[in-house]
What we know:
Helix content is 44%, strand content 16%. 47% of the residues are buried. Helix 1 links the parallel strand 1 and strand 2. It folds into 2 domains: 197 residues, Rossmann fold; 82 residues. Helix 1 packs across helix 8 and helix 7 packs parallel to helix 9. The chain has 314 residues and is an alpha/beta fold.
Amino acid sequence: MEKILVTGGCGQIGSELVSALRGKFGNENVILTDINVPNYEVQEIGPWEILDVTSYESIKAIIKKFEPTRIFHMAAILSATGEKIPQTAFKINLLGTFNVLEIAREFGVRQVIVPSTIAAFGPETPKINTPNETVMRPNTMYGITKVSIELLGEYYAKNYKIDFRSLRYPGIISSDVKPGGGTTDYANALYFDAAAKKKSIVFVNPQTTLPFMFMPDALDSIIQLSEAPQENLVHRSFNVAAFSCTALEIAESVKKYVPNFQFDFVPDHRDKIAASWPQSIDDSVARKEWNWRHKYDLDGMTRGMLKNLNVISG
Protein backbone atom coordinates (compact mmCIF):
# COMPACT_ATOMS: atom_id res chain seq x y z
CA MET A 1 0.00 0.00 0.00
CA GLU A 2 1.38 3.38 -0.99
CA LYS A 3 1.80 6.01 1.72
CA ILE A 4 2.52 9.41 0.26
CA LEU A 5 3.82 12.47 2.11
CA VAL A 6 3.37 15.92 0.55
CA THR A 7 5.34 18.86 1.92
CA GLY A 8 4.07 22.36 1.14
CA GLY A 9 0.61 20.87 0.93
CA CYS A 10 -1.13 24.22 1.39
CA GLY A 11 0.74 25.88 -1.48
CA GLN A 12 -0.40 26.64 -5.01
CA ILE A 13 0.51 23.27 -6.51
CA GLY A 14 0.68 21.28 -3.27
CA SER A 15 -2.93 21.90 -2.28
CA GLU A 16 -4.31 20.61 -5.57
CA LEU A 17 -1.77 17.79 -5.72
CA VAL A 18 -2.91 16.51 -2.33
CA SER A 19 -6.50 16.42 -3.59
CA ALA A 20 -5.50 14.60 -6.79
CA LEU A 21 -3.37 12.04 -4.93
CA ARG A 22 -6.12 11.39 -2.37
CA GLY A 23 -8.53 10.76 -5.21
CA LYS A 24 -6.11 8.19 -6.59
CA PHE A 25 -4.70 6.52 -3.46
CA GLY A 26 -7.33 7.22 -0.80
CA ASN A 27 -7.63 10.02 1.75
CA GLU A 28 -5.85 8.20 4.56
CA ASN A 29 -2.86 7.30 2.43
CA VAL A 30 -1.83 10.87 1.56
CA ILE A 31 -0.42 13.01 4.36
CA LEU A 32 -0.56 16.78 3.94
CA THR A 33 2.20 18.73 5.68
CA ASP A 34 2.84 22.47 5.64
CA ILE A 35 4.21 25.26 7.82
CA ASN A 36 0.66 26.67 7.82
CA VAL A 37 -2.52 25.13 9.21
CA PRO A 38 -4.82 23.88 6.41
CA ASN A 39 -8.39 25.09 6.31
CA TYR A 40 -11.00 23.19 8.28
CA GLU A 41 -12.46 21.34 5.29
CA VAL A 42 -9.03 19.97 4.37
CA GLN A 43 -8.39 18.93 7.97
CA GLU A 44 -11.53 16.81 7.93
CA ILE A 45 -10.64 14.94 4.74
CA GLY A 46 -7.36 13.28 5.64
CA PRO A 47 -4.23 13.28 7.82
CA TRP A 48 -2.20 16.46 8.14
CA GLU A 49 0.71 17.76 10.20
CA ILE A 50 2.45 21.08 10.74
CA LEU A 51 5.97 20.81 9.30
CA ASP A 52 8.94 23.15 9.03
CA VAL A 53 11.16 21.50 6.40
CA THR A 54 14.23 23.30 7.74
CA SER A 55 13.93 21.14 10.88
CA TYR A 56 15.45 17.69 10.33
CA GLU A 57 14.01 16.37 13.57
CA SER A 58 10.50 17.52 12.65
CA ILE A 59 10.63 15.70 9.32
CA LYS A 60 12.09 12.65 11.02
CA ALA A 61 9.22 12.50 13.52
CA ILE A 62 6.62 12.60 10.74
CA ILE A 63 8.45 9.97 8.69
CA LYS A 64 8.57 7.66 11.70
CA LYS A 65 4.87 8.26 12.39
CA PHE A 66 3.50 7.65 8.89
CA GLU A 67 6.25 5.59 7.16
CA PRO A 68 5.65 6.99 3.65
CA THR A 69 6.87 5.16 0.57
CA ARG A 70 7.00 8.35 -1.52
CA ILE A 71 7.57 12.03 -0.82
CA PHE A 72 6.35 14.85 -3.05
CA HIS A 73 8.50 17.70 -1.74
CA MET A 74 6.59 20.83 -2.80
CA ALA A 75 7.64 23.24 -0.01
CA ALA A 76 9.48 26.24 -1.49
CA ILE A 77 9.80 30.00 -1.58
CA LEU A 78 8.98 31.21 -5.10
CA SER A 79 11.00 33.50 -7.35
CA ALA A 80 9.71 37.02 -6.67
CA THR A 81 9.41 36.45 -2.92
CA GLY A 82 12.81 34.76 -2.93
CA GLU A 83 14.45 37.96 -4.15
CA LYS A 84 13.02 39.82 -1.17
CA ILE A 85 14.16 37.22 1.37
CA PRO A 86 16.99 35.28 -0.33
CA GLN A 87 18.45 33.89 2.90
CA THR A 88 15.08 32.40 3.84
CA ALA A 89 14.63 31.05 0.31
CA PHE A 90 18.02 29.33 0.55
CA LYS A 91 17.13 27.69 3.86
CA ILE A 92 13.67 26.50 2.85
CA ASN A 93 14.41 25.51 -0.74
CA LEU A 94 17.87 24.00 -0.57
CA LEU A 95 18.41 23.01 3.06
CA GLY A 96 14.81 21.80 3.27
CA THR A 97 15.38 19.51 0.28
CA PHE A 98 18.68 18.29 1.74
CA ASN A 99 16.79 17.34 4.91
CA VAL A 100 14.16 15.45 2.92
CA LEU A 101 16.77 13.53 0.92
CA GLU A 102 18.74 12.68 4.06
CA ILE A 103 15.57 11.43 5.75
CA ALA A 104 14.77 9.36 2.66
CA ARG A 105 18.26 7.86 2.80
CA GLU A 106 18.05 7.14 6.54
CA PHE A 107 14.58 5.57 6.49
CA GLY A 108 14.55 3.94 3.07
CA VAL A 109 11.86 6.07 1.41
CA ARG A 110 11.94 4.71 -2.11
CA GLN A 111 11.06 7.82 -4.12
CA VAL A 112 11.41 11.60 -3.77
CA ILE A 113 9.75 13.93 -6.30
CA VAL A 114 10.82 17.59 -6.23
CA PRO A 115 9.52 20.14 -8.75
CA SER A 116 12.11 22.32 -10.42
CA THR A 117 11.41 25.32 -12.65
CA ILE A 118 12.32 27.24 -15.78
CA ALA A 119 13.90 29.69 -13.31
CA ALA A 120 16.74 27.16 -13.13
CA PHE A 121 17.82 28.56 -16.48
CA GLY A 122 19.38 32.00 -16.84
CA PRO A 123 20.41 34.79 -19.23
CA GLU A 124 23.02 32.60 -20.96
CA THR A 125 20.53 29.80 -21.67
CA PRO A 126 19.07 29.59 -25.20
CA LYS A 127 15.65 31.21 -24.92
CA ILE A 128 13.89 29.51 -27.81
CA ASN A 129 13.14 25.80 -27.51
CA THR A 130 15.40 25.53 -24.47
CA PRO A 131 16.76 21.97 -24.48
CA ASN A 132 16.65 19.59 -21.54
CA GLU A 133 20.43 19.74 -21.16
CA THR A 134 21.93 23.20 -21.57
CA VAL A 135 23.65 26.06 -19.74
CA MET A 136 22.04 26.59 -16.34
CA ARG A 137 23.32 29.77 -14.69
CA PRO A 138 20.30 31.45 -13.05
CA ASN A 139 20.51 34.90 -11.49
CA THR A 140 17.83 34.52 -8.79
CA MET A 141 18.09 32.74 -5.46
CA TYR A 142 15.06 30.65 -6.43
CA GLY A 143 16.78 29.47 -9.60
CA ILE A 144 20.10 28.87 -7.85
CA THR A 145 18.44 26.64 -5.25
CA LYS A 146 16.57 24.67 -7.90
CA VAL A 147 19.72 23.95 -9.96
CA SER A 148 21.42 22.86 -6.74
CA ILE A 149 18.44 20.62 -5.89
CA GLU A 150 18.61 18.89 -9.27
CA LEU A 151 22.31 18.15 -8.78
CA LEU A 152 21.78 17.10 -5.17
CA GLY A 153 19.03 14.72 -6.24
CA GLU A 154 21.28 13.13 -8.85
CA TYR A 155 23.96 12.69 -6.19
CA TYR A 156 21.56 10.89 -3.85
CA ALA A 157 20.27 8.75 -6.71
CA LYS A 158 23.78 7.69 -7.69
CA ASN A 159 25.23 7.18 -4.23
CA TYR A 160 22.22 6.13 -2.13
CA LYS A 161 19.82 4.68 -4.72
CA ILE A 162 17.08 7.22 -3.94
CA ASP A 163 14.62 7.32 -6.83
CA PHE A 164 14.85 11.10 -7.27
CA ARG A 165 12.78 12.71 -10.03
CA SER A 166 12.18 16.33 -10.93
CA LEU A 167 10.40 18.35 -13.59
CA ARG A 168 11.03 21.94 -14.62
CA TYR A 169 7.67 23.63 -14.49
CA PRO A 170 6.81 26.67 -16.60
CA GLY A 171 4.39 29.26 -15.20
CA ILE A 172 1.47 27.41 -13.60
CA ILE A 173 -2.04 28.88 -13.84
CA SER A 174 -4.62 27.84 -11.25
CA SER A 175 -8.07 28.97 -10.18
CA ASP A 176 -7.83 27.42 -6.70
CA VAL A 177 -5.08 29.55 -5.15
CA LYS A 178 -4.73 33.30 -5.62
CA PRO A 179 -1.43 34.59 -7.00
CA GLY A 180 1.32 35.20 -4.48
CA GLY A 181 5.11 35.30 -4.76
CA GLY A 182 5.79 34.05 -8.28
CA THR A 183 7.17 35.97 -11.24
CA THR A 184 4.49 34.49 -13.52
CA ASP A 185 1.68 35.55 -11.15
CA TYR A 186 0.69 38.34 -13.53
CA ALA A 187 -0.96 35.67 -15.67
CA ASN A 188 -2.99 34.25 -12.79
CA ALA A 189 -3.91 37.77 -11.70
CA LEU A 190 -5.47 38.56 -15.08
CA TYR A 191 -8.06 35.83 -14.53
CA PHE A 192 -8.73 36.69 -10.88
CA ASP A 193 -9.07 40.39 -11.72
CA ALA A 194 -11.51 39.59 -14.52
CA ALA A 195 -13.56 37.53 -12.07
CA ALA A 196 -13.52 40.41 -9.58
CA LYS A 197 -14.53 42.86 -12.34
CA LYS A 198 -11.56 45.10 -11.70
CA LYS A 199 -8.82 46.53 -13.90
CA SER A 200 -5.69 44.41 -13.97
CA ILE A 201 -2.26 46.00 -13.60
CA VAL A 202 0.28 43.73 -15.28
CA PHE A 203 3.83 43.98 -13.92
CA VAL A 204 5.60 42.85 -17.11
CA ASN A 205 5.82 44.24 -20.65
CA PRO A 206 3.02 43.28 -23.04
CA GLN A 207 5.46 41.35 -25.26
CA THR A 208 7.12 39.45 -22.41
CA THR A 209 6.88 35.83 -23.54
CA LEU A 210 7.00 32.80 -21.27
CA PRO A 211 5.91 29.15 -21.33
CA PHE A 212 2.78 28.32 -19.32
CA MET A 213 0.74 25.34 -18.20
CA PHE A 214 -2.78 24.95 -16.81
CA MET A 215 -2.91 23.31 -13.39
CA PRO A 216 -4.65 20.07 -14.54
CA ASP A 217 -1.70 19.46 -16.87
CA ALA A 218 0.76 20.32 -14.09
CA LEU A 219 -0.84 17.73 -11.80
CA ASP A 220 -0.94 15.11 -14.55
CA SER A 221 2.74 15.68 -15.35
CA ILE A 222 4.07 15.22 -11.82
CA ILE A 223 1.92 12.14 -11.15
CA GLN A 224 2.83 10.63 -14.53
CA LEU A 225 6.52 11.19 -13.85
CA SER A 226 6.29 9.61 -10.40
CA GLU A 227 4.68 6.49 -11.90
CA ALA A 228 6.90 6.13 -14.97
CA PRO A 229 8.84 2.82 -15.02
CA GLN A 230 12.39 3.40 -13.81
CA GLU A 231 13.82 1.40 -16.71
CA ASN A 232 12.37 3.90 -19.20
CA LEU A 233 14.13 6.90 -17.65
CA VAL A 234 17.54 8.07 -18.79
CA HIS A 235 17.27 11.47 -17.09
CA ARG A 236 16.16 12.54 -13.61
CA SER A 237 15.20 16.17 -14.34
CA PHE A 238 12.85 16.98 -17.20
CA ASN A 239 11.61 20.02 -19.07
CA VAL A 240 7.81 20.05 -19.34
CA ALA A 241 5.74 22.53 -21.30
CA ALA A 242 2.34 23.15 -22.83
CA PHE A 243 2.38 26.46 -24.72
CA SER A 244 4.11 29.85 -24.82
CA CYS A 245 2.47 33.26 -25.11
CA THR A 246 2.99 36.95 -24.45
CA ALA A 247 1.42 38.74 -21.52
CA LEU A 248 -0.74 40.65 -24.00
CA GLU A 249 -1.98 37.43 -25.58
CA ILE A 250 -3.18 36.20 -22.19
CA ALA A 251 -4.96 39.50 -21.52
CA GLU A 252 -6.59 39.40 -24.95
CA SER A 253 -7.61 35.78 -24.41
CA VAL A 254 -9.43 36.84 -21.24
CA LYS A 255 -11.02 39.81 -23.00
CA LYS A 256 -12.35 37.49 -25.70
CA TYR A 257 -14.70 36.03 -23.07
CA VAL A 258 -15.02 39.13 -20.85
CA PRO A 259 -15.41 42.05 -23.31
CA ASN A 260 -15.51 44.73 -20.59
CA PHE A 261 -12.27 43.55 -18.99
CA GLN A 262 -9.65 46.29 -18.68
CA PHE A 263 -5.89 45.94 -18.17
CA ASP A 264 -2.74 48.05 -18.25
CA PHE A 265 0.95 47.20 -18.35
CA VAL A 266 3.18 48.73 -15.67
CA PRO A 267 6.45 46.75 -15.73
CA ASP A 268 8.51 46.55 -12.54
CA HIS A 269 11.60 44.60 -11.39
CA ARG A 270 9.83 41.29 -11.95
CA ASP A 271 9.86 41.87 -15.69
CA LYS A 272 13.67 41.63 -15.62
CA ILE A 273 13.41 38.25 -13.91
CA ALA A 274 10.92 37.05 -16.52
CA ALA A 275 13.15 38.32 -19.33
CA SER A 276 16.00 36.09 -18.10
CA TRP A 277 13.90 32.94 -18.51
CA PRO A 278 13.19 30.85 -21.63
CA GLN A 279 10.43 31.92 -24.01
CA SER A 280 9.73 28.38 -25.14
CA ILE A 281 10.71 24.93 -23.90
CA ASP A 282 11.79 21.77 -25.69
CA ASP A 283 10.26 18.96 -23.64
CA SER A 284 10.87 16.18 -26.16
CA VAL A 285 12.91 14.22 -23.58
CA ALA A 286 9.89 13.97 -21.25
CA ARG A 287 7.63 13.09 -24.16
CA LYS A 288 9.99 10.30 -25.23
CA GLU A 289 10.95 8.82 -21.83
CA TRP A 290 7.60 8.89 -20.02
CA ASN A 291 5.13 9.81 -22.74
CA TRP A 292 4.30 13.30 -21.43
CA ARG A 293 1.42 14.98 -23.32
CA HIS A 294 -0.35 18.21 -22.41
CA LYS A 295 -4.09 18.71 -22.92
CA TYR A 296 -4.63 22.50 -22.68
CA ASP A 297 -3.62 25.34 -24.97
CA LEU A 298 -4.06 29.05 -24.11
CA ASP A 299 -7.72 29.24 -25.14
CA GLY A 300 -8.56 25.98 -23.36
CA MET A 301 -6.87 27.26 -20.21
CA THR A 302 -8.73 30.57 -20.39
CA ARG A 303 -12.09 28.85 -20.74
CA GLY A 304 -11.23 26.51 -17.89
CA MET A 305 -10.06 29.32 -15.61
CA LEU A 306 -13.07 31.54 -16.28
CA LYS A 307 -15.45 28.63 -15.83
CA ASN A 308 -13.81 27.67 -12.51
CA LEU A 309 -14.02 31.30 -11.35
CA ASN A 310 -17.73 31.43 -12.29
CA VAL A 311 -17.20 34.07 -14.97
CA ILE A 312 -18.55 31.96 -17.81
CA SER A 313 -20.62 28.77 -17.94
CA GLY A 314 -20.53 25.70 -20.10
